[in-house]
Structure prediction request, 302 residues.
Amino acid sequence: MKEIRFDGRVAIVTGAGQGIGRMYALELARRGAKVVVNDLGASRDGAGADTSAADKVVDEIVAAGGGAVANYDSVATMAGGENIVKTAVDTYGKVDILINNAGILRDKSFMKMTEEEWDLVIGVHLKGGFCVTQPAVKVMKENNYGRVIFTASTSGLYGNFGQTNYGAAKMGLVGIMNTLKLEVAKFDIKINTIAPTAWSRMTSDLFPPEFEQKMNPQFNEPMVLYLCSEENTACGNIYAMGAGWYGRTAIVSGDGVCLGDAQRKISVEEIRDNFDKISDMENKREHGSGLGIFEYMGPLLS
Ligand code: NAD
Prediction:
């Protein structure tokens, strides 16, 4: 079996000071990549900053014979994102791999959520995805090569009580991917989104104690490293995972129904009378872009 290697590749992993991101950084370096270990060293709710989080992971990589450099910028500003990418370019000359992983939580039920809690979570996850990815993709385009990962969550894909801010940010990243993949299609830049599950400080009070081993953050790492490898040709997909289970998830649409002739007014009663057909998902289909939805309207538009 040919080993998947990252020799000669330069990777940025945001929020790599602990948890799932640390696993990516350690294994990328073990397989030959030079790694920018970004971490603000924030607490779970995003407060504070501590350089030791990133430093410890860099020390671990270097002690094992790998190459890594620390960066302590916040992903949540464009200046921070640009500096994270600059750290990679100044130290190693380029960026081949970007894993957007940094994250915080400010859980609150929707009706109790404050503007600050909303903005902070959207800022780190969604704006952070923009602020680091834009300067990184600029460098990737120059080299006609790149692998980008966005980190979503099942909370965004399917919902989770108390996480409207987090869920909205995570689904927003899927929205970035869906369009960015089209904008960089002519370059060898593959962009995918993952929804990980792991025991970390983010989840340790949600999962039962026996999950600590079973939900080891390591289980997310091989899937993400595969998606970041040269061998991977998948782009624009969403993969969920945890505890050794890996599966693709997707946004799909059903066949629906064409009413009228694109001339006459459609009544609300016609919607009611066709609601089962409109809601039917038996023939699910994915679309490579928003234009896909025009396939269904074809008979009405021709
Ligand atoms: P974690 O709290 O262990 O690690 C997150 C890291 O991000 C921390 O080291 C923190 O310092 C860093 N960070 C926070 N704000 C930052 C900022 N502004 N700039 C740079 N670094 C910052 O969390 P984790 O469980 O390892 O989660 C990693 C990612 O996976 C997050 O995006 C999280 O939302 C996502 N996720 C995790 C789970 C899970 O089950 N653990 C589930 C779904 C999604």
About this structure: The chain is about 40% helix and 15% strand. The domain at 252-301 is CATH 1.10.287 (Helix Hairpins). The mean pLDDT is 97. The beta strands are 10-13, 34-38, 67-71, 97-100, 146-151, 189-195, 238-242, 245-249.
